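Lecture notes, part 5. Sequence design as translation. It can be helpful to think of inverse folding as translation between two languages: the language of shapes and the language of residues. The source text, in structure tokens, appears below.
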């Protein structure tokens, strides 16, 4: 089964580290090479990492407004609530993380 990446949303970085840590997944400060073998619900041993999504864990939504700066169009965005983590290197998604999984953005 191929590995997938999943986007998760937590209230804060500390909350993310606590929840992921309880599953044996280390939350890294930045994207890094995979580490930490984790047994998944399916029993497979695999390398799983959790890292901040969008470099700083903040998801931004475009507002549709633009401005011009030095002849370039600049799009405005607003931060979305929560701390976002990209979970990588996983084949079987842990059921315990279902409540944190981002499947679609609000309209």
């Amino acid at each position: 089964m191929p590995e997938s990446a999943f986007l998760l949303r937590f209230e804060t970085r500390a909350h993310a580290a606590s929840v992921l840590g309880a599953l044996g997944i280390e939350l890294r400060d930045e994207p890094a090479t995979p580490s930490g073998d984790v047994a998944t619900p399916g029993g497979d041993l695999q390398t799983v990492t959790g890292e901040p999504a969008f470099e700083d864990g903040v998801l931004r939504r475009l507002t549709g407004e633009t401005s011009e700066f030095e002849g370039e169009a600049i799009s405005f965005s607003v931060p979305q609530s929560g701390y976002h983590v990209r979970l990588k290197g996983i084949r079987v998604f842990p059921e315990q993380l279902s409540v944190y999984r981002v499947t679609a953005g609000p309209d």
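The translated text above is only one of many valid answers, since several sequences can fold into similar shapes. The chain has a mean pLDDT of 75.
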